[in-house]
Amino acid sequence: MDPLDALPRIALAHLPTPIVQIPQLSARLGCELFVKRDDVTGGAESGNKLRKLEFLMAEALDQGCDTVLTTGGIQSNHARATALVCARLGLACVLFLRVDDPFAPLPLTGNVLLDALAGATIRPITREQYRTRDELMAAAARTLELSGKKPYVVPEGGSNGLGALGYVRAMREVRTQIDSGLAGDPRPFDVIVHACGSGGTAAGIALGAARYGVARTVRPMAVCDSADYFQRRVEAQMHEARARCSGLPASPPFVVDDAGKGPAYAVTTSEQRAFLVDVARTSGVVLDPVYTGKAMFGLGLAIKRGEVPAGARVLFVHTGGLPGLLAAAESFHEEAR
Ligand SMILES: Cc1ncc(COP(=O)(O)O)c(C=O)c1O
C-alpha cells in the first residue's frame, strides 16, 4: 500500500481534476502546454487549498477540534476555502486577515464576501502583527482552550508538511492520467509550473512529481519574496512532509523562479494585466492577478530567456483564485476594456 493512503484524509475536492491541452496558449508561449485544472476542485471553495485541507481537516477532526484558526492576506483564497470547509464540517472558523487599516470597514468583495457568507469570524490584523502571525494564533488558541474550546491552527496557506501531502497525492493523480493517455503522449512532462505563495503546493508537487515520475523538474513561480527565500521554505516543508509520510524522495529537483512576480504581492504591472486579459480572450482560461496570472506570465519570461526550452512539454497547474480577480476589478479598468 502507498503510505499516503494510511493517513487520515477527508474527501473534499472533486477529483480527478482534468488535464487540458490549449493549443492557443501553446502557440502564444512557445511550448507544448497542458493545464491541470485545479481551479475546479470544487464550487465556491475551489482551488489548490482544498487538496491541503483534505489532510489538515482530517487531523482537526481526529483530534476532536471544534474551532479552526488560520491566517492570510485580506483576499486570501486559503482563508476563504477554510471558512467554507469549516461551515460544511460544522466547525467554527476564525480568520486573522492582514489589512492596511484594521479600523476601516471590511470590503465585502471577492473572498471576504465568501468568508462572511460562511459565517467565519474575521479578525483584521496589521502588517506588523502579521509578522508574528503564528504566535498570534497560538495565543488565540490558548484563550479558546481556557473557554473550553478545542482549537486547531492551520498555518498561512495551509502550508506545512501535512498540507503538502495533498499535492503529493495530486501528482499520483497526474501519473494515472498520463498512464491513461489523458495528457497527450505517455511521457513525463519536462517541467511543472505553478504559482508559489507560501510553499506548500511547491513542496508537495516537487516530492510527488519525483515520487511518481511525473516530470523531470518543477518550477514554482514565486508571487512575492525571493527565489532564495522560497527555495529554503519549500525545503523545510518537504522535510516535514517526509516526517509525516514514508517513501518520499530525499532531494527532488525544483527551481524557484521569481522573475514574474512583479512589483509586490498582489500588485501587478500593466503588462501583467494585459497578459492576463489576452490569455482569457484567446483561450477562455481565466487567471487571477495575484497568483496564476503571475505564474503563467513568469513561464513566458522563462521560455524567452531559454531557461524553459522552447517546445518543452509543460504542465501548468492552475491553482484557482477567481474571487481575488473579481475583488481586483478596478485595477483592470484600462486593460479589460
Ligand atoms: C490561487 C492560488 N494559487 C497559488 C497559491 C500558492 O500556493 P502555496 O500557498 O501553496 O504556495 C495560492 C495561495 O497562496 C493561491 O491562492
How far apart are the termini? 54 Å
Rounded mean pLDDT score: 97
Percent of residues in β-strands? 15-25%
CATH C-level name of the largest domain: Alpha Beta
Going across the biggest sheet, name each strand in turn: 1-2-9-7-8
How many independent structural domains? 2
Q: Structural class, judged by helices and strands?
A: alpha/beta
The largest sheet is: 5 strands, mixed
Considering DSSP H and I runs of 4 or more, what fraction of the residues is helical?
A: 40-55%
The rounded Rg comes to 19 Å
How many strands in all? Answer: 9
**The CATH topology of the largest domain:** Rossmann fold
Please name the CATH architecture of the largest domain: 3-Layer(aba) Sandwich
Low-confidence stretches: none
Which outline best applies?
globular
- The helix-strand sequence is EHEHEHEHEHHEHEHEHHHEH
Number of helices: 12
Tell me which ligands are bound. Answer: pyridoxal-5'-phosphate
Key terms for this structure?
337 residues, alpha/beta, Rossmann fold, 4-stranded parallel β-sheet, 12 helices, 16% strand, binds pyridoxal-5'-phosphate
List the helices and strands and how they pair.
Blueprint: E1 19-21, H1 23-29, E2 32-37, H2 49-62, E3 67-73, H3 77-89, E4 92-98, H4 110-117, E5 121-125, H5 127-131, H6 133-146, E6 151-153, H7 161-179, E7 189-196, H8 200-211, E8 215-222, H9 227-244, H10 270-283, H11 292-305, E9 313-318, H12 322-327
Parallel strand pairs: 2-9, 3-4, 3-6, 4-5, 7-8, 7-9
Antiparallel strand pairs: 1-2
The structure holds pyridoxal-5'-phosphate.
